[in-house]
Amino acid sequence: MGRRRSARETALQILYELEFNESGPEEVLRRRKAEKPAGAGAGEYAAWLVRGVFGRRSELDDRIQGAARNWRVARMGLVDRNILRLAVYEMLEEKTLVPAIIINEAVEIARRFSGGESAVFVNGVLDAVRRALSGEAGANHTSEKNEHDRSPKPQTPPRPAGTPRGGGRRTPSGQ
Hints:
Layout: H1 3-18, H2 25-35, H3 40-55, H4 57-67, H5 78-93, H6 99-113, H7 116-144
């Protein structure tokens, strides 16, 4: 198991504990380190995740809620909810990883700690969050452009006669 996967799993366990424990993350992190020291990198990454998620739960829950159709965050399972929070936090703050890697890690952790149906649910919600974040980044990027820098989109060339639509693929019936 990789260092970051180990850190994510540790962070998930700590966040789960914090759902039932009124002590803050620092106390739980300190106790956890004394009980079961992790590797230097994994322990630091787990602590970074726990502090970040714990401090921004409301914002993360709002983003998850916006992506989770027909599901209220408060009604989600504790494990699933915390996996989602971890992944959304990483998508927002971890600039060295592409969202697809973060989503894949979250799905694998959901499969391990919560089951196959949860993995599918986590994948769907996180993909919706990823699309929303991409839309925000695109909106911010285009709003920062100067009007003089904008050029018209190139026109798609017309299809040659007799070329089927959809990239040349044919349906099983040959149509």
